């Protein structure tokens, strides 16, 4: 298998301007690699910096130091830590997906439209996008009566499943998962596990952070623990 992503001495430091330029270290000296089709899981206490790592990979946060070498289909070998915003936008649209615990959606977009948009960005036809979106909403046990409603009224578990449906319908090259089972019951976790296994078989590379260690152990290939700022393979 080929190396999909290699992180070398990644650092993110936040400067709190309202408190006299106080510096807070989000993560530091983070290094690991993951090959195509592998799933790497990261555990650690709340506040250890796990989400900071994922947000640096997705470039929600601009790293303070280090490198994130990524094998891009669009641009070839690229350092996500220093790539310009234009390239990052293209890579997000075409190659890398991120699943947050929190739903970020325009107020007048229905659940079905939210998932369809993810496919339309990739050039799918409207009819194809609609069919695949409906299949994914059904897979994640979102009742059909909710497909044409606005998700602001959804429960926490429904919102998370909707985020998963939008990201996992894409068959991305790299999928970043931030607590993908945080508010899910056992039946919903099984749907996530099934889809993760399908994506792995189709070559999607994944990196996820977890508190549910039993679920993580059932899907990941490598397990890293972030403790006292140090990331080590378990």
Automatic annotation (TrEMBL):
- Gene3D superfamilies listed in its UniProt record: P-loop containing nucleotide triphosphate hydrolases
| Keyword Nucleotide-binding in annotation | yes
Q: Which InterPro entries match?
A: AAA+_ATPase (IPR003593), ABC_transporter-like_ATP-bd (IPR003439), CP_lyase_PhnL (IPR012701), P-loop_NTPase (IPR027417)
**Alphabetical keyword list:** ATP-binding, Lyase, Nucleotide-binding
Looking at the record, the residues that make up the ABC transporter domain are 5-234
Could you state a single Gene Ontology molecular function term?
A: ATP binding
* UniProt keyword ATP-binding, yes or no: yes
**Family statement drawn from the similarity comment of this UniProt entry:** Belongs to the ABC transporter superfamily.
Could you identify this protein by its name?
Phosphonate C-P lyase system protein PhnL
Please tell me the species this chain comes from.
Answer: Sporolactobacillus shoreae
Q: Which gene is transcribed and translated to give this protein?
A: phnL
């Amino acid at each position: 298998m080929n190396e999909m992503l290699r992180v070398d001495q990644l650092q993110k430091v936040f400067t709190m301007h309202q408190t006299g330029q106080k510096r807070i270290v989000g993560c530091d000296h983070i290094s690991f690699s993951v090959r195509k089709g592998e799933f790497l899981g990261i555990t650690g206490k709340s506040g250890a910096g796990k989400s900071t790592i994922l947000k640096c990979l997705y470039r929600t946060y601009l790293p303070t130091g280090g490198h994130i070498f990524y094998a891009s289909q669009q641009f070839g070998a690229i350092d996500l830590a220093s790539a310009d915003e234009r390239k990052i936008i293209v890579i997000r649209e075409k190659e890398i997906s991120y699943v947050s615990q929190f739903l970020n959606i325009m107020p007048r977009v229905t659940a079905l439209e939210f998932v369809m948009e993810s496919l339309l960005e990739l050039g799918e036809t409207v009819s194809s996008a609609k069919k695949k979106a409906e299949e994914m909403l059904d897979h994640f046990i979102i009742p059909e009566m909710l497909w044409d409603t606005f998700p602001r009224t959804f429960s926490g578990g429904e919102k998370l499943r909707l985020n998963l449906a939008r990201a996992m319908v894409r068959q991305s090259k790299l999928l970043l998962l931030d607590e993908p089972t945080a508010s899910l019951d056992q039946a919903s976790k099984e749907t996530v596990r099934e889809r993760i296994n399908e994506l792995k078989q189709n070559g999607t590379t994944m990196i996820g952070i977890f508190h549910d260690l039993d679920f993580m152990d059932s899907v990941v290939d490598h397990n890293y623990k972030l403790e006292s700022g140090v990331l080590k393979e378990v």
